[in-house]
Design goal:
Length: 1085
């Protein structure tokens, strides 16, 4: 790889676009030397600055400027300033013999280009792939607004990409790739620490150190991210634990709800089916009873109709009896006429010759007329009797009328039932509950008043007992204090007693008596007055005692009294405990009574609310919906009643029609009676004529007798006519007898039928009575069944309300399929109540908590995975850093040794002898620095997990700081030892200016020889050299040109002589640098 071309535009004095084309590979495989010459101030060094700038230099000092936009052409008197500067470096990478330094493989998950966002910006993805290209262009562009950009092969990249590329290609950004003015002397004048950075590039470990720095930055970022993730985990974990518990409760609640639903389905299904079976049984019984009732009613009505029909026939029977009587009379008349006719026939035989035959004939004719009339009458009577024997039309009419009457009664009963149902609906709507509620309110108020009175009595009792308890407790405290004082006095008396101290004892005892007197005067210690009095009497005997024995006896008495006092105190304590126990019991009773009062108050409040609600229903319009429903039901009932009324009207019309038919029948009966009356009158007329005829016959008999006696009756003609007349009369009589026989037979049949009808009527009445009893029983059963049905319907409604209150669909209950197991309703009810209690204990849980739990758990798991990933990344980065440290140290040591040898070699060439070397200055650090940090931190981690976490973060921070502070090489600096021939010098500071320049040049040549860069820019490094040393330097550069390409900015003729291409730089009046070029190879040819 070598520099093929350099393009500069707008950079410092190069305002116009200039191209510098450099020599490539020469025939002898040397890269050649390009010299840039020109007067001072013409802008030669700006070429070196442009190369340094495009290679990523950030130091304004190194670029000989103060700020970033100073590199842009500032303008002149004759040319305006530019707004941007751009430098492009064209590298030729076609030389197969040039092998750039590749980074050794380092294990670990490490991205060379850093972040993936570079891809979005079109940045390069792989430095190694870039280094395999034949042409590489590096461009840097800056604008006056401060915006800057880097490009490699016209693709935007970051500065770090450029730095990594240059490090891999062995470009020294701050060292030997571009050696500017004064850098040679400054190189020796710098401190060993500053010199170390130069050797990092010289030894070729800079690229690894960049990787190491990037890895350290990533490690620090990962540690910070890990700390933040752990902090988030610590924040989320308590919430997650709480959510886990809540989700557990929610799952338990769902499980209990499922179990509750299953048990409720079993429970309500059993109750529903039981109630439904009862309803069906009652409905079936009602239906059966109704059918039986209807059948019995029909049977009863039929029997009643038959009875009424029979009763209706009674009037015709009476008429028939009358006719029978009349027939009997007619029969008698016929019989009498027959006898008379027989007599007449007998007499007529005798009276053949009677002159009065004309009169007899006229009488016979009249008689025949009467007989004919009687026959006609008999015929009419037979017709009428036949009419009497067929009363079916009348019975049918009567039956229809009875049916209509029964229908009317049924409709009236239905109307009454509907009215009762209407009243029931009104009662269910709450219009009839006010009286009950008022009675319930009065009852609860009475209970509440009694409970308050009992509470007041109990409260007074409790206050009294509490005051007594306080008094007894206070008395007990005083007794205890007095006993303690007595014991203390007794102790002092025992200690202070001696025969010479009797007066002291007497005074103490008097003091003791005065204290006991105080106790005796206490009104709260009545129980102990007697004991205190005894003690006082016993102690009074001590006054004046001088004998130790008597004193001891007295003390023993006092001790016994005190012991008795204590026993009495214990009894009092027991009594006090009992009082306290009773007090607590009474207090508990008071509490229970207060609870009862509160319950009664709540019940009273609910009753008053119901009353108020009922009043509102009566007085206000806030129950419009309920009112509308009732009005709708009432409207339907009214429509039913109206329909029944219309049907009743129709029945009335039918009844009226039947009544009219009945009237017609009655009219027909009247006509029959009139006809009978007519027949009676005719019979009367016949009777009167018969009487007349009888009289005439009697007269005739007398005349015949007289004529017979006189012998006038012997005419044969007359006898013959009498015979004929006799035959006619006989024939007529036979007909009348036959008629009478048929009438008598019919009359007998009629009487027999009437007898049967009477018996049948009695049986019917008996059956009607039994049917009525049975029907009443059925009515009672039906009413009872209807009541039971109403109760079951009410229970079913209550059950349905309970089901709806438990938020269960009725269809689920109806369609629930039993498993066939035995169901114990009480056990199920207890189990349901137990589950409900458990649900109440669990309480309500927001269903969204499960969603929140899932989200929180997901976030927690994600963060936990991130901690794993971060820990893996941290371990991987630590491993990369360790491997890089090993690689850097190994590479640095080997290259450093080679540079030291080359340095000594080129030093001897330039100085014609002498000795020079470089040696490292080790850092003051222990080998196990990280272990020491861990041990120091572990000694402070004995105070809990929280501090351990903080210490872990602190340990990580210390590690990173340690790794940043102490490099992988383990050097704090590099020192140089240069001893020209014939001199003894301990430090390079003792060298002269020329010696210092030659020493620095020797070191630079050693670095180029050991680790050659693609090209090196030398900016007047030979300015301080004399002619001989310049020749030596030129020769060295010519020898090294087979390893690297040199661009020398110089005034030295020896260097120009060795150059292959010579560029001249001039500056015109406009302040713009211009280029002039000469290819010396062609010129020499």
């Amino acid at each position: 790889m070598y520099l093929e071309k350099l393009e500069i535009q707008g950079f410092k004095s190069f305002a116009n676009k200039n191209k510098l084309v450099f020599s490539g590979m020469l025939s002898d495989k040397k890269r050649g030397i390009t010299s840039v010459v020109g007067p001072n101030g013409s802008g030669k060094s700006n070429i070196a600055d442009a190369i340094r700038w495009v290679l990523g230099e950030q130091s304004s000092k190194m670029l000989r400027s103060k700020k970033s936009d100073d590199v842009i052409f500032m303008g002149s008197d004759k040319k305006s300033r530019l707004n941007f500067a751009e430098v492009s470096l064209f590298l030729n990478n076609q030389n197969p013999n040039f092998k750039f330094r590749e980074m050794e493989s380092v294990k670990g998950d490490f991205l060379e280009n850093g972040e993936e966002e570079n891809k979005d910006r079109g940045e390069i993805d792989n430095i190694d792939a870039l280094l395999m290209l034949s042409e590489i262009t590096i461009t840097r562009r800056v604008y006056r607004d401060g915006h800057s950009e880097y490009l490699i092969n016209d693709s935007k990249v970051r500065l770090s990409d450029v730095q990594i590329f240059l490090a891999k290609a062995n470009f020294g950004q701050k060292t030997y790739s571009v050696i500017g003015q004064g850098m040679v002397e400054n190189f020796l004048n710098t401190s060993p620490t500053e010199r170390k950075a130069f050797f990092d590039e010289a030894t070729g470990v800079k690229q690894y150190q960049i990787k190491r720095d990037i890895s350290l930055n990533k490690l620090e970022t990962s540690q910070e991210n890990l700390g933040q993730v752990e902090m988030l985990l610590n924040e989320i974990e308590p919430r997650l634990n709480s959510l886990t518990r809540q989700v557990g409760k929610l799952k338990k609640r769902k499980s209990l709800e499922g179990l509750l639903e299953e048990n409720q389905l079993k429970y309500y299904s059993f109750l529903w089916k039981e109630a439904d079976s009862k309803l069906q049984a009652f409905n079936k019984k009602i239906t059966d009873d109704s059918n039986s009732r209807n059948e019995l009613k029909d049977d009863l009505e039929k029997k009643k109709q038959k009875v009424e029909a029979i009763n209706a026939e009674s009037s015709l029977n009476e008429v028939f009896l009358q006719l029978q009587t009349k027939l009997s009379e007619v029969k008698e008349i016929i019989s009498r006429n027959e006898n008379q006719k027989e007599n007449i026939f007998n007499w007529e035989k005798i009276r053949l010759e009677n002159k009065n035959s004309d009169e007899i004939e006229s009488l016979i004719k009249e008689k025949n007329e009467h007989v004919l009339e009687l026959e006609n009458l008999n015929k009419e009577l037979l017709v009428f009797v036949n009419k009497i024997d067929g009363p079916e039309n009348f019975e049918e009419t009567q039956r229809i009328m009875l049916d209509l009457e029964n229908k009317k009664q049924e409709k009236q009963k239905e109307l009454m039932k509907l009215e009762a149902l209407l009243e029931l609906k009104l009662e269910k709507s709450g219009n009839f509950d006010i009286s009950f509620l008022f009675s319930k309110q009065s009852e609860i108020k009475g209970d509440l008043l009694k409970a308050n009175e009992a509470l007041e009595i109990l409260d007074l009792d409790l206050k009294d007992k509490e005051s007594r308890l306080n008094e007894d407790a206070e008395g007990e405290k005083k007794i205890i204090l007095k006993i303690e004082e007595l014991e203390e006095e007794l102790k002092r008396a025992r200690i202070d007693y001696n025969p010479s101290n009797v007066q002291k004892i007497n005074s103490d005892l008097e003091s003791l008596l005065s204290k006991i007197k105080d106790v005796n005067e206490s009104s709260d210690l009545n129980l102990f007055k007697k004991i205190v009095s005894d003690i006082k009497d016993g102690l009074s005997n001590l006054i004046g005692f001088v004998s130790g024995q008597k004193f001891d006896n007295t003390i023993e008495k006092i001790n016994s009294k005190i012991f008795e006092f204590k026993k009495e105190r214990e009894k009092a304590g027991e009594a006090l405990s009992e009082i306290r126990l009773n007090f607590n019991i009474e207090k508990n009773k008071k509490f229970q009574l207060e609870l009862h009062i509160n319950k009664l108050s709540k019940d009273l409040q609910e009753i008053e609310q119901k009353i108020s609600s009922n009043k509102k229903e009566e007085n206000f319009s806030d129950v419009e919906t309920k009112k509308n429903n009732l009005e709708k039901e009432l409207g339907e009932l009214s429509n039913s009643i109206l329909d029944i009324k219309l049907r009743l009207e129709k029945i009335k019309i039918e009844k009226e029609t039947q009544r009219q038919n009945k009237e017609k029948t009655e009219k027909s009966l009247i006509q029959v009676k009139e006809k009978i009356n007519e027949i009676d009158s005719r019979i009367s007329f016949i009777k009167s004529n018969d009487a007349k005829n009888q009289a005439k016959l009697e007269n005739l008999e007398d005349a015949i007798k007289n004529n017979f006696l006189s012998g006038e009756l012997d005419d044969s003609k007359f006898v013959e006519s009498l015979d004929k007349e006799k035959l006619f009369i006989n024939k007529t009589l036979d007909e009348q007898k036959s008629l009478l026989q048929s009438l008598e037979l019919e009359s007998a049949n009629f009487n027999q039928e009437q007898e049967k009808k009477r018996e049948y009527l009695l049986n019917l009445q008996k059956e009607i009575h039994e049917l009525e009893l049975t029907l009443n029983s059925i009515y009672n059963d039906l009413n009872s069944s209807q009541i039971n049905l109403a109760r079951e319907e009410t229970r079913m409604e209550d059950l349905e309300n309970n089901i709806l209150n438990d938020k269960i669909e009725i269809n689920l209950i109806k369609n629930y399929k039993e498993t066939g197991e035995d169901i114990n309703v009480d056990v199920l009810r207890a189990e349901i109540n137990r589950i409900k209690n458990q649900l109440e204990l669990i309480g309500g849980i927001d269903p969204e908590v499960e969603k929140e739990y899932v989200e929180t758990k997901k976030r927690y798991d994600f963060l936990f995975e991130q901690t794993d990933d971060l820990n893996k990344t941290i371990k991987s980065l630590e491993k990369v850093i360790v491997e890089l440290d090993f690689l850097i140290k190994d590479r640095f040591e080997s290259e450093f040794k080679l540079i030291s040898e080359k340095f000594n070699e080129y030093f001897k060439i330039l100085f014609n002898g002498g000795q020079a070397k470089i040696f490292p200055i080790k850092e003051d650090m222990t080998e196990n620095g990280l272990d020491k940090i861990d041990n120091e931190l572990d000694s402070k981690n004995s105070e809990g997990s929280t501090k351990n976490e903080e210490s872990q973060s602190f340990r990580n921070l210390k590690k990173i700081k340690y790794l940043k502070k102490y490099n992988a090489v383990g050097l704090s600096g590099v020192d140089i030892l240069a001893v020209p021939p014939g001199k003894k010098i301990a430090s390079v500071n003792m060298l002269s200016g020329g010696e210092r320049a030659l020493t620095a040049i020797a070191l630079i040549c050693a670095i180029i020889s050991a680790n050659p860069a693609p090209f090196v820019v030398l900016d007047e490094v030979d300015a301080a050299l004399d002619e001989a040393n310049s020749e030596r330097l030129a020769k060295i550069l010519d020898d090294l040109s087979d390893k690297t390409q040199f661009i020398a900015i110089t005034h030295n003729r020896a260097t120009m002589k060795r150059a292959n291409i010579l560029y001249g730089i001039t500056m015109g009046a406009d302040g713009v640098s211009k280029l002039l070029s000469i290819k010396l190879d062609e010129y020499s040819q």
